[in-house]
# Entry
Amino acid sequence: MSLLYDLYQPGDSWLHRLDPRVKVGLVFCGCSLLLLFRNVWLMLGALACVGFVLWSAGVARERMAWVARMTLPTMAMIAVLWVIFYRGEGRVLFSWWFLEVTASTIAEGLAVALRVGALALLILAWLFTTDQTTLVHSLVALGMPYEWGLTLAMALRYLPTMGNVFGMISDAQQARALDLTKGNPLKRARAYLPITVAMLITALRTAQSLSLALESRALGARRKRTYLHRLHFRRADLLWTIGIVLATAALLWARLVWGFGARPY
Amino acid sequence: MSTSPPCIRVEELFFEYAGDLAALNGVDLEIAENAYVAIVGQNGSGKTTLVKHFIGLLRPSSGRVWVYGRETTSVSVGELARTVGYAFQNPDHQIFCPTTREELAFGPRNLGLGAREVAERTEDALTAFGLLPYADLPPAVLGYGLRRKISIAAVYTMRPRILILDEPTTGLDGRSAHELLALLGGLYAQGHTILLVTHDMRLVAEYARETLVMHEGRVLAYGPTRQVFGLAEELSRAQLIPPQVTRLGEALRPYLRETVLTVPEFCQAFVRAREAGP
# Structure
């Protein structure tokens, strides 16, 4: 199955064993902190930390390579565009036409790129080590209405199906001499219309039959429901929760009270 | 088997899906022009994978496929669609137009035919498939059987010399199925090559002149349907069960002395055997 459809990699690492609710907390706190700081060295440290987390979670080398292929070009593009379009403070190192490059511009561009990379890696570490069902369970356990959780689970479950359907529809329309390769970009985009419409019809038909099937199996018949699988909060999870809360509080204090990590470099 | 020159030639064809899942394991095959072939086999035996190579939707991992002498890797799917029509199993993978008429006209328009030619072909298909009452209705809201007919009619309008149908009678009632097969019989009589991918052994017995048995990505048997239906061991290996009347005929083989495919054939063979005596 393509990595795009299901990111989960089965395993028994410390991150796999961690309660999924704690992982949600870790990702939430981590993302918030990453958005709060803007220092390039801190961002570099954060990226290295998250990279270490991924490595210690036993994420396969091919997946790491896939992550690198996905994130590095984006990070490079962000850094370059930031330098081109953002006018920073301080002494100008280089100027040409509208371009004025300062040390802070470069540092901020790098910090933003590293932040994006760290955010992506953090979220991927969560998705690589939490299967879709557990992920939805954790969100429901944290207060998300069950119907929303089920909708999310089904959306994730149907991603590969819809990907497959897209391939089939594309084949079917090409077998009717639809050419998706010729012409200018606008013409090529229009050539995808038959595929898009057929895809929509199929998706609506699937959604309708699925909703009827769910209703016929008594979804929503009672407000209270029981669960086959329950999440178990262990002592290690408690220690992790305390650690995450303390670390987040300390970093928030340092950033908001002392101004730690507020400067680009 | 037909003695006409081959319209499809396959040489040492291997194909693997992503993830090293081998679907075809060395297929060598020649299908003569104006053949009527049923391709049968278990799910996952490689039937659909094989026919997708004939229209260029799949490219061989190794080996070669020629359609009317042109290697499929050297032409686009759109170009091959002029010669090879492929009706997919699920009609919803094709249907997208606001009316049935437009749906049928989509293929011929892609082929660059003139307005008059497109209109003629569309009207012809609407009549032939009994779709005139639904011509101006959106096909997506019609019942499954009608959508199936429309998807096949949409390929029929392209007038391909080779017509491939994947499970053509699924979802059709008995009458519609027989109407469709009679129509295919008419196209066969006009010189078209018909390839049916199917699990319906009764349909195969009644209509297909030749049968190709696929098993684990290989051709297990290929020949006239009567001959193939007599290969009990091969059919059993491919987990295919011939129609009841054929099995009854095989059980009475010492008496009947021939393979029968249909009930009328059984009756005739029975009469002949009775007249011939012990």
Notes: Residues 246 and 252 of chain A are 10 Å apart (CA to CA). The first strand of chain A starts at residue 92 and ends at 96. Chain A touches chain B through 22 residues (CB under 8 Å). Residues 146-174 of chain A form the longest helix (29 residues).
